[in-house]
Design a protein that fits this description.
mainly beta, Pseudouridine synthase, 3-stranded antiparallel beta sheet, 14 strands
């Protein structure tokens, strides 16, 4: 597995996660993950971070999450931070909790988004019909958490008589599937998203979900503000041009 390093110091690592690779395992799949790459290339990070646990046939299973402070969905590409030691992990975690880290994504969504700019302020909870999905607005179940997403239209375009919009998106909170759920709430779901947009066509030339983590801005342990950027995927540029 080849993963590009975008930034590195003695405490923090920023990588360019490819689309189609999970951040860590689920205890069932044998597919290689970002966590596997970390353990192979940075074995000293093995015990940094917080593991996850789940039960499988009554047996408690531990999932290793070496250095993983935040996650990107399997089909989302782009910049992702890793902590190389426990001090860095707690330092970055605090910035995420306090919403001090600035994240910018780009997305291709179905339909022509009406407003050039907007803010989606809708709490997110579980879907009552599908345990894999989350939901904003009516009908949510379980714990409901505040979620805020800002967006800006970069371009509206048409492919084969089907309308799409290219967006810059800045999530102010970090909920699971937040961008995907909020764009679904607006009736402009992310293209090629099999979970939230299974019925609309993918633009010709795009065979992966249209969501990319373009940049992240944080403070390193010296107190310096660092901004790390990931190049826009070639397939995005070809679709949007």
């Amino acid at each position: 597995m080849k993963i590009k390093i975008l930034y590195e110091d003695s405490n923090i690592l920023a990588i360019d996660k490819p689309s189609g690779i999970s951040v860590h395992g689920d205890g069932r799949s044998k597919d290689k993950t970002v966590a596997d790459w970390v353990l192979k290339n940075y074995p000293k990070i093995k015990n940094v971070g917080e593991p996850e646990f789940f039960e499988d046939k009554g047996i408690k299973v531990e999932i290793k999450r070496p250095g993983i402070v935040h996650r990107l969905d399997r089909e989302t590409s782009g910049v992702m931070l890793l902590a190389k030691n426990k001090k860095a992990f707690e330092f970055l975690k605090s910035q995420f909790v306090n919403r001090e880290i600035k994240k910018t994504y780009v997305a291709i969504v179905s339909g022509s988004v009406r407003h050039d700019r907007g803010v989606i302020n809708k709490p997110i909870g579980r879907s009552p019909r599908d345990f894999r999905r989350y939901l904003a607005g009516r009908g949510v179940r379980g714990e409901i958490r505040q979620a805020i997403t800002e967006y800006k239209v970069l371009k509206r375009f048409t492919v084969s008589q089907t309308k799409y919009t290219y967006l810059e998106i800045r999530p102010k909170t970090g909920r699971t599937h937040q961008i995907r759920v909020h764009m679904k709430y607006l009736n402009h779901p992310v293209v090629c998203d099999s979970l939230y947009n299974p019925d609309n066509p993918c633009p010709k030339g795009l065979s992966r979900m249209g969501l990319h983590a373009k940049s992240i801005e944080f403070k390193n342990l010296k107190g310096e503000t660092i901004k790390v950027e990931s190049s826009i995927p070639k397939e995005f540029k070809e679709v949007v041009r």
